[in-house]
Amino acid sequence: MKIFLDTAIVEEIREAASWGILDGVTTNPSLAAQSGRSFKENILEICEIVDGPVSAETVGLTAAEIVSEARLVCSWHRHVVAKIPCISEGLKATRALKDDPNVRVNMTLVFSANQGLLAAKAGANFVSPFIGRLDDAGHDGMELIRDLVAIYDRYGFDAEIITASVRHPRHVVGAALAGSHIATIPFKVLQKMARHPLTDVGLARFLKDWEKVPDHDTILKG
Ligand code: E4P
Fold first, then answer.
1. Is the model's pTM score more than 0.90?
2. What does 35-56 look like in DSSP terms, one character per residue?
């Protein structure tokens, strides 16, 4: 499963990229606002850090506006993917952009299997079901991932599922087990994924014992 970072903060992206596990980045208007920077400048800097898709969201509400915004953001850098909301005008725009070789679409704000089915049929390259927000509303977000994986497999849709609105490490494991192609993860959750208290305890014990090795203070110093 590919790992994307769900953030517009370049320091977080730089750190995750340095771990060698980063396949892409997703942003949205709320994350762009948190960055406090010019949208284009920020997206361009992210594109230089990560060698993979970087989602930049459109805000138009008509198909014509969405198409024009999608073409614009995708012209900024070859890594940019236009993130388009799953509304009827967004589906229309996605279909209109399907044969444009310079535009890839990530259909976002997907909360049902029907929306995911329509997004794939319209020609979206990526589809983003928001599982955390579904859980928050009393639904089972992971069930949507399982349903979409089954539907896409059964009918041979090319769209890649990006498990989004990830709240904790267990969501990432669930997405991987369900067969999601990608999970987009907040940096705080990524940090939690890398840590385990038994690793910390084990390391502390090894370091203490290492001091009892006669040549410990010189042998690994080169
Ligand atoms: C992903 O594409 C979305 O931007 C993001 O995952 C939404 O997450 P949230 O529900 O935590 O805002």
1. yes
2. HTS-HHHHHHHHHHH-SS-EEE
